[in-house]
Amino acid sequence: MQKALRHLRAADPVMARLIAEIGGYRIEYSPPNYQTLARAIVLQQVSGKAADRIFARLLECCPDGELTPKALLGLPLEKLRAAGLSRQKIAYLRELARRTLAGEVDFAALKKLPDQEVTRRLTALKGIGVWTVQMFLIFALRRPDVMPSGDLGIRAAVRKAYGYDSLPSPREVERLAEAWRPYRSVAAWYLWRTLEDKAGL
Prior knowledge:
Radius of gyration: 18 Å
CATH architecture of the largest domain: Orthogonal Bundle
Number of helices: 13
Mean pLDDT: 94
Distance between the termini: 20 Å
Largest sheet: none
Shape: globular
Number of strands: 0
Order of helices and strands: HHHHHHHHHHHHH
Strand content: under 5%
């Protein structure tokens, strides 16, 4: 990891300042399994704090506090709605659970695939877009060079750190992030740390 930090410091003085202010890289990883990808779905279009509350209530409904495909499919709609899930997200979680149990989603196999293939396979599933896969790549599969340029938190952090007058577009973030390769995931973590509502799975 020191190699990544040296690269980012040398490549970008603003990133060097953020690293100095925030300190060491302390990302918290999650296992690459159904529960983690399901949490990424719950995170869609809600704040991290709201997602934490919803997901905590969801885990309370599960046997042993673990969200497995079988556990999710065993929960009635009323319990899922009471946890704070929308009908649309419930449909996505159930679809992912069914596809996982059928062997169509193989989390062990995903660990061995390149980022592009993981993205292709998972975005073929209903309710899973590029942002959700990017979160899974960073926080579960531990991929070092992912840049979620469309993430509102990343864009807000870039605006704050780099002095943009308005929210930069995803394309502007991508151009800026070219200097951070091959450690864009690390740079993204530092950008998120500058915000109050921090990202993570």
